[in-house]
Amino acid sequence: MKNRIASPLFARAGSPRWLARRPSLRWLLGFAVAAAALVFFAVLPGRAQEAFIEGVHYTALRETQPVQTGEQIEVVELFWYRCPHCFRLEPYIARWKRNKPANAELVELPAILNDNWAFGARIYYTLEALGLAEQLHSAVFNAIHRARRPLNTREQFADWAAENGADRDAVLAAFDSFAVESKMRFAGLMSRKYRITGVPAIVVDGKYRTSVQLAGSHERLLEVINHLVDKAAKERG
């Protein structure tokens, strides 16, 4: 009797004997594994896109709000300088800003949910009016939460700003200016329209609201923001 030529479908050394005796079954099993792998990789992109779920990781606003960034996708961060959660989020937002999608633009918005929050908003808009927000925004957080600096009056804030390179008289003049008052009215209005109940909160393209709590972590929040930027861009067409 001629020696049989070993078939590649037959079991190699170490395979179970029942598979070695049943090449057709082995072939079917191999085919099933390959088919399952193809199905898995075929649906993987879709699974990645659906990783963040509306109502779980973010919510849709009842009414879409206007944006200030033109063709760029607006990413609004609502914050309060005295909020420890906002302080902890700040370095993550700063990192996101350095690596953000090219079609996104960050807008800082000091939330005003009650009268006590108004002073912090006035600090931010004073810095913005003087062209110092980019330079000193994070420094205000550090002054309050690390240095325990009591920035509770316009004079205390002006002194601190002067120590950090600002003109003290210019700070005092801007602090009570019409431009700052107008920005504060806008911040109060948008805080209500975004229907936030706490901070930090993120609103993307005037449509979607998310937070660290909804996302699950600081790192995850950055992923949700990028997901919503992509989603909003596609919806704009």
Short overview:
By secondary structure, this protein is an alpha+beta fold. Helix content is 56%, strand content 10%. The chain has 2 domains: 1-50; 59-236, 3-Layer(aba) Sandwich (Glutaredoxin).
Structural class designation: alpha+beta
Number of helices: 10
Radius of gyration: 28 Å
CATH-derived architecture of the largest domain: 3-Layer(aba) Sandwich
- What portion of residues belong to β-strands? 5-15%
The helix fraction, in percent, is 55-70%
Look at the structure and give the CATH class of the largest domain: Alpha Beta
Q: So, the CATH homologous superfamily of the largest domain?
A: Glutaredoxin
Supply the number of structural domains.
Answer: 2
Order of helices and strands: HHEEHEHHHHHEEHH
The biggest beta sheet is recorded as: 5 strands, mixed
Tell me the strand order in the biggest sheet. 1-5-4-2-3
Low-confidence region ranges: 1-23, 35-50
Using the alpha-carbon principal axes, give the shape: globular
Number of strands: 5
The CATH topology label of the largest domain is Glutaredoxin
Provide the fold topology.
Blueprint: H1 17-20, H2 23-49, E1 59-60, E2 73-79, H3 84-99, E3 104-110, H4 115-129, H5 133-145, H6 154-163, H7 168-175, H8 178-193, E4 201-204, E5 208-210, H9 212-215, H10 218-236
Parallel strand pairs: 2-3
Antiparallel strand pairs: 1-5, 2-4, 4-5
Helix pairs in contact: 3-5, 4-5, 4-8, 6-7
